[in-house]
Amino acid sequence: GRSKRMRSQSRDPLLQYAAAVTVIAAMAVRWSVAAPRLRSSDTLFVEPKTQIGFATTRGKQCLLGAGVRVKKIGPARVSVYAVGLYGGRQERRGPLTLELVFARSVAGPTVVDALARVKGVSGQVETTFREAMLAAIGSKIHKDETITLACDAPRAARFTFAVRGADPTTLSNVPGLCQAVFDLYLGPDPVSPALLDSIDARAAEAAAERRPFGTC
Protein backbone atom coordinates (compact mmCIF):
# COMPACT_ATOMS: atom_id res chain seq x y z
CA GLY A 1 0.00 0.00 0.00
CA ARG A 2 0.97 3.67 0.34
CA SER A 3 3.07 3.14 3.48
CA LYS A 4 5.00 0.36 1.75
CA ARG A 5 5.81 2.63 -1.21
CA MET A 6 6.97 5.37 1.15
CA ARG A 7 9.27 2.97 2.96
CA SER A 8 10.76 1.79 -0.31
CA GLN A 9 11.30 5.39 -1.46
CA SER A 10 13.05 6.24 1.81
CA ARG A 11 15.64 3.57 1.05
CA ASP A 12 16.26 4.92 -2.47
CA PRO A 13 19.89 6.18 -2.42
CA LEU A 14 19.14 8.96 -4.92
CA LEU A 15 16.32 10.29 -2.76
CA GLN A 16 18.51 10.04 0.33
CA TYR A 17 21.29 11.94 -1.45
CA ALA A 18 18.87 14.67 -2.60
CA ALA A 19 17.51 15.00 0.92
CA ALA A 20 21.02 15.28 2.35
CA VAL A 21 21.98 17.98 -0.19
CA THR A 22 18.84 19.94 0.73
CA VAL A 23 19.68 19.78 4.45
CA ILE A 24 23.31 20.77 3.88
CA ALA A 25 22.30 23.68 1.67
CA ALA A 26 19.86 24.93 4.31
CA MET A 27 22.54 24.67 6.99
CA ALA A 28 25.02 26.54 4.78
CA VAL A 29 22.54 29.39 4.34
CA ARG A 30 22.01 29.61 8.10
CA TRP A 31 25.75 29.54 8.75
CA SER A 32 26.46 32.23 6.14
CA VAL A 33 23.83 34.49 7.62
CA ALA A 34 24.97 33.88 11.18
CA ALA A 35 28.72 34.01 10.50
CA PRO A 36 30.25 36.90 12.44
CA ARG A 37 31.86 39.67 10.40
CA LEU A 38 34.57 41.96 11.64
CA ARG A 39 33.52 45.53 12.16
CA SER A 40 35.61 48.65 11.88
CA SER A 41 36.24 50.53 15.12
CA ASP A 42 38.43 53.29 16.49
CA THR A 43 41.38 50.87 16.62
CA LEU A 44 40.63 48.55 13.67
CA PHE A 45 39.66 49.17 10.07
CA VAL A 46 38.23 46.19 8.22
CA GLU A 47 38.75 45.92 4.47
CA PRO A 48 35.26 44.81 3.42
CA LYS A 49 36.12 42.52 0.49
CA THR A 50 38.63 40.31 2.33
CA GLN A 51 37.49 40.96 5.92
CA ILE A 52 41.16 41.61 6.77
CA GLY A 53 41.62 44.09 9.60
CA PHE A 54 44.21 46.85 9.81
CA ALA A 55 45.22 48.66 12.98
CA THR A 56 44.33 52.34 12.69
CA THR A 57 47.78 53.28 13.99
CA ARG A 58 51.25 51.96 13.25
CA GLY A 59 53.86 53.55 15.46
CA LYS A 60 53.50 57.28 14.82
CA GLN A 61 51.68 56.71 11.54
CA CYS A 62 47.94 56.59 10.96
CA LEU A 63 45.97 54.40 8.56
CA LEU A 64 45.07 56.54 5.55
CA GLY A 65 43.07 53.85 3.77
CA ALA A 66 42.85 50.17 2.89
CA GLY A 67 41.72 48.27 -0.19
CA VAL A 68 41.94 44.95 -1.98
CA ARG A 69 44.20 43.80 -4.81
CA VAL A 70 42.06 41.82 -7.24
CA LYS A 71 43.52 39.64 -9.97
CA LYS A 72 41.65 38.15 -12.90
CA ILE A 73 42.37 34.44 -13.28
CA GLY A 74 40.47 33.12 -16.28
CA PRO A 75 36.84 34.23 -15.95
CA ALA A 76 37.13 34.70 -12.17
CA ARG A 77 38.27 37.73 -10.21
CA VAL A 78 40.04 36.71 -7.01
CA SER A 79 41.20 38.72 -4.01
CA VAL A 80 44.96 38.33 -3.71
CA TYR A 81 45.69 40.57 -0.74
CA ALA A 82 44.44 43.54 1.21
CA VAL A 83 46.68 46.59 1.38
CA GLY A 84 46.75 49.39 3.91
CA LEU A 85 48.54 52.73 3.55
CA TYR A 86 49.99 54.42 6.63
CA GLY A 87 51.31 57.96 6.86
CA GLY A 88 50.97 61.24 8.66
CA ARG A 89 49.66 64.72 7.99
CA GLN A 90 52.20 65.04 5.18
CA GLU A 91 50.65 61.86 3.79
CA ARG A 92 52.17 61.89 0.30
CA ARG A 93 55.36 63.75 1.15
CA GLY A 94 56.53 62.32 4.47
CA PRO A 95 57.19 58.73 5.59
CA LEU A 96 54.83 56.18 4.06
CA THR A 97 54.23 52.50 4.77
CA LEU A 98 52.29 49.93 2.77
CA GLU A 99 51.16 46.78 4.55
CA LEU A 100 50.09 43.84 2.38
CA VAL A 101 48.15 41.03 4.07
CA PHE A 102 47.58 38.06 1.80
CA ALA A 103 44.11 36.58 1.37
CA ARG A 104 45.47 33.47 -0.38
CA SER A 105 48.76 31.66 -0.91
CA VAL A 106 50.84 32.93 -3.83
CA ALA A 107 54.11 31.71 -5.33
CA GLY A 108 57.07 33.86 -4.30
CA PRO A 109 58.29 34.61 -7.85
CA THR A 110 54.76 35.71 -8.80
CA VAL A 111 54.66 38.20 -5.93
CA VAL A 112 58.10 39.54 -6.80
CA ASP A 113 57.24 39.91 -10.49
CA ALA A 114 54.16 41.94 -9.57
CA LEU A 115 55.93 44.22 -7.08
CA ALA A 116 58.99 44.69 -9.28
CA ARG A 117 56.92 45.72 -12.27
CA VAL A 118 57.99 49.29 -11.66
CA LYS A 119 58.80 52.14 -14.01
CA GLY A 120 61.50 54.77 -13.88
CA VAL A 121 64.27 52.78 -12.18
CA SER A 122 67.52 51.47 -13.59
CA GLY A 123 68.01 47.82 -14.43
CA GLN A 124 70.45 47.52 -11.54
CA VAL A 125 67.95 48.90 -9.03
CA GLU A 126 65.23 46.55 -10.29
CA THR A 127 67.56 43.56 -10.07
CA THR A 128 68.61 44.49 -6.53
CA PHE A 129 64.96 44.78 -5.51
CA ARG A 130 63.96 41.49 -7.13
CA GLU A 131 66.80 39.49 -5.62
CA ALA A 132 66.30 40.88 -2.11
CA MET A 133 62.54 40.37 -2.16
CA LEU A 134 62.75 36.82 -3.49
CA ALA A 135 65.36 35.89 -0.89
CA ALA A 136 63.05 37.13 1.87
CA ILE A 137 59.79 35.67 0.52
CA GLY A 138 61.08 32.29 -0.62
CA SER A 139 59.06 29.89 -2.74
CA LYS A 140 55.64 30.95 -1.46
CA ILE A 141 53.84 33.42 0.73
CA HIS A 142 50.85 32.00 2.55
CA LYS A 143 47.42 33.26 3.50
CA ASP A 144 47.49 35.82 6.35
CA GLU A 145 51.24 36.45 5.93
CA THR A 146 52.43 40.01 5.41
CA ILE A 147 54.79 42.15 3.39
CA THR A 148 55.58 45.67 4.58
CA LEU A 149 57.06 48.32 2.26
CA ALA A 150 58.31 51.61 3.70
CA CYS A 151 60.08 54.81 2.65
CA ASP A 152 61.11 57.91 4.55
CA ALA A 153 59.62 59.92 1.68
CA PRO A 154 58.23 59.03 -1.76
CA ARG A 155 61.44 60.25 -3.43
CA ALA A 156 63.87 58.82 -0.90
CA ALA A 157 66.84 56.80 -2.15
CA ARG A 158 66.47 54.24 0.65
CA PHE A 159 63.81 51.53 0.59
CA THR A 160 62.85 49.24 3.49
CA PHE A 161 60.75 46.09 3.47
CA ALA A 162 59.88 43.23 5.81
CA VAL A 163 58.27 39.85 5.16
CA ARG A 164 56.18 37.95 7.72
CA GLY A 165 57.07 40.49 10.41
CA ALA A 166 60.77 39.62 10.30
CA ASP A 167 63.52 42.18 10.85
CA PRO A 168 63.37 44.76 8.05
CA THR A 169 65.74 44.75 5.09
CA THR A 170 67.00 48.14 3.94
CA LEU A 171 68.14 48.77 0.39
CA SER A 172 70.36 51.84 0.22
CA ASN A 173 71.18 53.83 -2.89
CA VAL A 174 68.20 52.61 -4.91
CA PRO A 175 67.14 55.92 -6.51
CA GLY A 176 63.63 56.00 -7.86
CA LEU A 177 62.50 52.78 -6.18
CA CYS A 178 60.35 54.41 -3.51
CA GLN A 179 58.58 56.58 -6.03
CA ALA A 180 58.10 53.66 -8.42
CA VAL A 181 56.71 51.23 -5.83
CA PHE A 182 54.30 53.74 -4.32
CA ASP A 183 53.18 54.77 -7.81
CA LEU A 184 51.94 51.20 -8.22
CA TYR A 185 49.34 52.03 -5.57
CA LEU A 186 48.95 55.82 -5.67
CA GLY A 187 49.74 56.59 -9.32
CA PRO A 188 47.42 57.11 -12.30
CA ASP A 189 47.00 53.36 -12.94
CA PRO A 190 46.85 51.85 -9.43
CA VAL A 191 46.86 48.09 -8.87
CA SER A 192 44.25 48.59 -6.14
CA PRO A 193 41.71 51.27 -7.08
CA ALA A 194 39.86 50.31 -3.90
CA LEU A 195 42.77 51.66 -1.85
CA LEU A 196 42.47 55.10 -3.43
CA ASP A 197 38.69 55.02 -2.94
CA SER A 198 39.25 54.25 0.74
CA ILE A 199 41.78 57.07 1.09
CA ASP A 200 39.30 59.50 -0.46
CA ALA A 201 36.53 58.28 1.85
CA ARG A 202 38.65 58.61 4.97
CA ALA A 203 39.80 62.08 3.86
CA ALA A 204 36.15 63.08 3.49
CA GLU A 205 35.42 61.74 6.98
CA ALA A 206 38.29 63.80 8.39
CA ALA A 207 37.00 66.92 6.64
CA ALA A 208 33.49 66.33 7.98
CA GLU A 209 34.93 66.00 11.50
CA ARG A 210 37.07 69.11 10.94
CA ARG A 211 40.32 67.37 11.75
CA PRO A 212 43.46 67.21 9.60
CA PHE A 213 43.66 64.15 7.41
CA GLY A 214 46.45 61.86 8.59
CA THR A 215 45.79 62.32 12.30
CA CYS A 216 44.55 59.34 14.29
State the gist of this model.
The chain is α+β, with helices and mostly antiparallel strands and 216 residues long. Helix content is 37%, strand content 28%.
Write the layout of secondary structure elements.
Blueprint: H1 2-10, H2 13-34, E1 44-47, E2 52-55, E3 57-58, E4 61-73, E5 76-87, E6 96-102, E7 106-107, H3 108-115, H4 123-137, E8 140-141, E9 146-151, E10 159-163, E11 169-171, H5 177-186, H6 193-208
Antiparallel strand pairs: 1-2, 3-4, 4-5, 5-6, 6-9, 7-8, 9-10, 10-11
Helix pairs in contact: 3-4
Label this structure with key terms:
disordered N terminus; seven-stranded antiparallel β-sheet; two-stranded antiparallel sheet; 216 residues; alpha+beta
Low-confidence stretches: 2-35
For this entry, what is the oligomeric state of its chains? Answer: single chain
Number of β-strand runs: 11
Mean pLDDT: 84
Distance between the termini: 76 Å
Proportion of residues in β-strands: 25-35%
Sheet with the most strands, sense and barrel status: 7 strands, antiparallel
Give the number of helices: 6
Helix vs. strand class: alpha+beta
Helix and strand element order: HHEEEEEEEHHEEEEHH
The strands making up the biggest β-sheet line up spatially as 3-4-5-6-9-10-11
